[in-house]
Design a protein that fits this description.
The protein is an all-alpha fold. Helix content is 52%, strand content 0%. The chain has nine helices and no strands. Helix 1 packs across helix 5 and helix 7 runs antiparallel to helix 9.
Protein backbone atom coordinates (compact mmCIF):
# COMPACT_ATOMS: atom_id res chain seq x y z
CA UNK A 1 0.00 0.00 0.00
CA UNK A 2 1.32 3.42 -0.92
CA UNK A 3 1.86 5.67 2.06
CA UNK A 4 0.28 9.11 2.13
CA UNK A 5 3.04 11.66 2.18
CA UNK A 6 2.85 15.39 2.61
CA UNK A 7 4.66 17.31 -0.14
CA UNK A 8 7.74 19.20 0.96
CA UNK A 9 9.87 21.67 -0.93
CA UNK A 10 13.23 20.41 -2.13
CA UNK A 11 16.36 22.52 -1.76
CA UNK A 12 16.06 23.54 -5.41
CA UNK A 13 12.42 24.51 -4.89
CA UNK A 14 13.32 26.72 -1.93
CA UNK A 15 15.73 28.56 -4.22
CA UNK A 16 13.10 28.71 -6.96
CA UNK A 17 10.53 30.13 -4.52
CA UNK A 18 12.85 32.94 -3.46
CA UNK A 19 13.83 33.67 -7.07
CA UNK A 20 10.19 33.86 -8.20
CA UNK A 21 9.22 36.19 -5.36
CA UNK A 22 12.27 38.38 -5.93
CA UNK A 23 11.50 38.44 -9.65
CA UNK A 24 8.05 39.97 -9.25
CA UNK A 25 7.77 43.66 -10.22
CA UNK A 26 9.15 45.87 -7.46
CA UNK A 27 5.91 47.81 -7.14
CA UNK A 28 4.15 44.60 -6.04
CA UNK A 29 5.89 44.77 -2.69
CA UNK A 30 5.99 40.96 -2.58
CA UNK A 31 7.31 39.16 0.49
CA UNK A 32 10.65 37.38 0.51
CA UNK A 33 10.53 33.63 1.11
CA UNK A 34 11.63 33.93 4.75
CA UNK A 35 9.03 36.63 5.37
CA UNK A 36 6.38 34.46 3.70
CA UNK A 37 7.41 31.60 5.98
CA UNK A 38 6.64 33.68 9.07
CA UNK A 39 3.36 34.77 7.49
CA UNK A 40 2.30 31.18 6.75
CA UNK A 41 3.28 30.07 10.25
CA UNK A 42 1.19 32.85 11.78
CA UNK A 43 -1.78 31.81 9.65
CA UNK A 44 -1.47 28.19 10.74
CA UNK A 45 -1.35 29.17 14.41
CA UNK A 46 -4.66 31.01 14.15
CA UNK A 47 -7.55 29.38 16.01
CA UNK A 48 -9.66 30.07 12.92
CA UNK A 49 -9.08 28.45 9.53
CA UNK A 50 -8.12 30.98 6.87
CA UNK A 51 -8.71 29.84 3.30
CA UNK A 52 -5.89 30.13 0.74
CA UNK A 53 -7.83 32.47 -1.52
CA UNK A 54 -7.83 34.97 1.35
CA UNK A 55 -4.18 34.76 2.37
CA UNK A 56 -2.35 33.96 -0.87
CA UNK A 57 -2.67 37.39 -2.59
CA UNK A 58 -0.95 39.20 0.29
CA UNK A 59 2.29 37.27 -0.26
CA UNK A 60 2.69 38.33 -3.86
CA UNK A 61 1.32 41.85 -3.42
CA UNK A 62 1.44 44.29 -0.52
CA UNK A 63 -1.99 45.46 -1.65
CA UNK A 64 -3.43 41.95 -1.70
CA UNK A 65 -4.09 42.09 -5.44
CA UNK A 66 -3.00 39.88 -8.30
CA UNK A 67 0.25 41.27 -9.75
CA UNK A 68 0.05 42.94 -13.15
CA UNK A 69 2.40 42.06 -15.99
CA UNK A 70 3.20 38.62 -14.54
CA UNK A 71 2.48 35.66 -16.79
CA UNK A 72 -0.03 33.10 -15.57
CA UNK A 73 2.43 30.19 -15.60
CA UNK A 74 4.84 32.05 -13.31
CA UNK A 75 2.06 33.00 -10.91
CA UNK A 76 0.64 29.48 -10.92
CA UNK A 77 4.06 27.98 -10.15
CA UNK A 78 4.67 30.49 -7.38
CA UNK A 79 1.31 29.81 -5.75
CA UNK A 80 1.90 26.07 -6.06
CA UNK A 81 5.23 26.34 -4.21
CA UNK A 82 3.70 28.53 -1.52
CA UNK A 83 0.80 26.15 -0.97
CA UNK A 84 3.20 23.21 -0.74
CA UNK A 85 5.16 25.07 1.93
CA UNK A 86 1.90 25.91 3.74
CA UNK A 87 0.95 22.23 3.83
CA UNK A 88 4.45 21.30 4.96
CA UNK A 89 4.34 23.68 7.95
CA UNK A 90 0.84 22.51 8.84
CA UNK A 91 1.99 18.89 8.71
CA UNK A 92 4.92 19.59 11.03
CA UNK A 93 2.61 21.24 13.55
CA UNK A 94 -0.11 18.60 13.36
CA UNK A 95 2.39 15.76 13.74
CA UNK A 96 3.89 17.46 16.81
CA UNK A 97 7.21 18.31 15.15
CA UNK A 98 9.07 21.63 15.55
CA UNK A 99 8.94 24.02 12.63
CA UNK A 100 12.00 24.49 10.43
CA UNK A 101 11.79 28.11 9.28
CA UNK A 102 13.38 29.49 6.14
CA UNK A 103 16.34 31.66 7.04
CA UNK A 104 18.16 33.56 4.32
CA UNK A 105 21.77 34.50 4.98
CA UNK A 106 23.57 37.09 2.88
CA UNK A 107 26.94 35.52 2.04
CA UNK A 108 28.44 39.00 1.69
CA UNK A 109 27.13 40.13 5.09
CA UNK A 110 26.54 37.01 7.21
CA UNK A 111 26.36 39.02 10.45
CA UNK A 112 24.05 41.76 9.17
CA UNK A 113 21.18 42.15 11.63
CA UNK A 114 18.77 39.59 13.06
CA UNK A 115 18.32 36.75 10.55
CA UNK A 116 14.90 36.03 12.08
CA UNK A 117 13.60 39.55 11.43
CA UNK A 118 11.89 38.68 8.11
CA UNK A 119 10.09 35.74 9.76
CA UNK A 120 8.85 38.08 12.50
CA UNK A 121 7.74 40.67 9.93
CA UNK A 122 5.69 38.06 8.07
CA UNK A 123 4.28 36.73 11.34
CA UNK A 124 3.17 40.23 12.33
CA UNK A 125 1.61 40.76 8.90
CA UNK A 126 -0.52 37.65 9.32
CA UNK A 127 -1.77 38.94 12.67
CA UNK A 128 -2.59 42.35 11.21
CA UNK A 129 -4.55 40.92 8.30
CA UNK A 130 -6.21 38.07 10.20
CA UNK A 131 -6.51 39.12 13.86
CA UNK A 132 -7.89 35.91 15.43
CA UNK A 133 -4.51 34.91 16.87
CA UNK A 134 -3.96 38.31 18.45
CA UNK A 135 -7.41 38.11 20.03
CA UNK A 136 -6.62 34.92 21.96
CA UNK A 137 -6.89 35.68 25.66
CA UNK A 138 -4.16 33.44 27.03
CA UNK A 139 -1.06 34.52 28.93
CA UNK A 140 1.14 31.77 27.49
CA UNK A 141 0.12 32.64 23.94
CA UNK A 142 0.72 36.33 24.56
CA UNK A 143 4.20 35.66 25.89
CA UNK A 144 5.06 33.31 23.04
CA UNK A 145 3.80 35.76 20.40
CA UNK A 146 6.05 38.38 21.98
CA UNK A 147 8.88 35.85 21.78
CA UNK A 148 8.43 35.82 17.99
CA UNK A 149 7.86 39.55 17.59
CA UNK A 150 10.98 40.43 19.62
CA UNK A 151 12.85 39.83 16.34
CA UNK A 152 11.05 42.66 14.54
CA UNK A 153 13.23 45.47 13.20
CA UNK A 154 13.16 48.49 15.52
CA UNK A 155 11.13 50.55 13.05
CA UNK A 156 8.27 48.03 13.16
CA UNK A 157 8.15 47.41 16.91
CA UNK A 158 5.80 50.31 17.58
CA UNK A 159 4.11 50.09 20.98
CA UNK A 160 6.00 46.85 21.67
CA UNK A 161 9.41 48.53 21.63
CA UNK A 162 9.69 49.08 25.39
CA UNK A 163 8.43 45.57 26.17
CA UNK A 164 10.85 44.02 23.68
CA UNK A 165 13.71 46.04 25.14
CA UNK A 166 12.84 44.74 28.59
CA UNK A 167 12.67 41.17 27.30
CA UNK A 168 16.05 41.51 25.62
CA UNK A 169 17.50 42.80 28.89
CA UNK A 170 15.92 40.22 31.17
CA UNK A 171 16.14 37.20 28.84
CA UNK A 172 18.85 37.88 26.24
CA UNK A 173 19.43 35.53 23.34
CA UNK A 174 23.18 35.36 22.87
CA UNK A 175 23.61 33.43 19.63
CA UNK A 176 21.68 32.85 16.37
CA UNK A 177 21.23 29.22 17.38
CA UNK A 178 19.73 30.20 20.73
CA UNK A 179 17.44 32.70 19.01
CA UNK A 180 16.22 30.07 16.56
CA UNK A 181 15.59 27.50 19.29
CA UNK A 182 13.61 30.05 21.27
CA UNK A 183 11.50 31.10 18.28
CA UNK A 184 10.74 27.46 17.43
CA UNK A 185 9.71 26.84 21.03
CA UNK A 186 7.48 29.94 21.02
CA UNK A 187 5.65 28.63 17.97
CA UNK A 188 5.20 25.28 19.73
CA UNK A 189 3.70 27.01 22.79
CA UNK A 190 1.19 28.86 20.64
CA UNK A 191 0.26 25.72 18.70
CA UNK A 192 -0.50 23.86 21.92
CA UNK A 193 -3.18 26.39 22.85
CA UNK A 194 -4.60 27.48 19.50
CA UNK A 195 -4.39 24.19 17.60
CA UNK A 196 -4.23 21.63 20.41
CA UNK A 197 -0.87 20.29 19.25
CA UNK A 198 1.60 19.46 22.01
CA UNK A 199 5.09 19.75 20.53
CA UNK A 200 7.72 18.56 22.99
CA UNK A 201 10.45 21.13 22.96
CA UNK A 202 11.95 23.38 25.60
CA UNK A 203 12.35 27.12 25.38
CA UNK A 204 15.78 28.62 25.90
CA UNK A 205 14.26 31.46 27.92
CA UNK A 206 10.91 32.07 29.56
Amino acid sequence: MKKNTVPALSDDEFVELEDLLAGLPEDCGAMSSDEADGYLTGLLLSPEEILPERWMPWIVSAAGKEPQNVDEDTLYRLESLLFTRYKEIDHRLSTRNPIDPIILIDDDEPDAGDSLAPFAVGFLRSMELFPALGAVQNKAVGGAVLGVLRHLPAELQGDLAETIQGLDTDSPLSTPEESLDDLVACVAEIAEVTRGFTIKIGRAHV
